[in-house]
Amino acid sequence: IGSFLGSTGTGAGPAQMEQAIGALLQQHGGIGGLVTQLTQVGLGAQVASWVGSGQNQTVTATEITQALGSGSVGRNAQQLGINPQEAGSLLAQIVPHLIDHMTPGGQLPANAGQVPRSDVLASAVKAIASRLFA
Fold first, then answer.
1. What is Dmax (Cα atoms) for the chain?
2. Exposed / middle / buried, residue 41 (Cβ in 10 Å: 0-12, 13-18, 19+)
3. Is the overall model pTM greater than 0.85, yes or no?
4. Cα 113 from Cα 124, distance rounded (Å)
5. What whole-number distance in Å separates Cα of residue 81 and Cα of residue 127?
6. Residue 13, phi-psi category: left (phi > 0), alpha (psi -120 to 50), beta (remainder)
7. Contacting residues for 133 by C-beta, under 8 A, at least 6 apart
8. Closest CA to 5 of 63, 61, 80
9. Mean pLDDT confidence for 4-11
10. How deeply is 59 buried, as exposed, middle or buried, from its count of CB atoms within 10 A (0-12, 13-18, 19+)?
11. Of 27, 91, 99, 127, which has the maximum CB count within 10 A?
């Protein structure tokens, strides 16, 4: 995803981004766990917009860092070779699109508690990149 994320200054390639997203999902109990965690920390309205079929509400880097925890964001930063502040900003852009992409039809998938297969992650990364950097 280096070409897609070039505007963020990361040197991350598609494989690194897939690994980072996979690690994020694993840390938080799959897409279902991520949705639950974000909802429980006060981002329910935003999460509902990402799962639903309407316009995605935004989330700030501070909100996403507080919601996911600085340790989780720091691990993602390390995987992507960027600082934690940049990772928070990047996750604030990526997470809404990730949840939107992985909840087709406004529903969590049957395997929402699992980390998706690598081909599903690759598809998600491509979809996110096309939305963010089209």
1. 36
2. middle
3. no
4. 17
5. 22
6. beta
7. 4, 5, 7
8. 80
9. 45
10. buried
11. 91
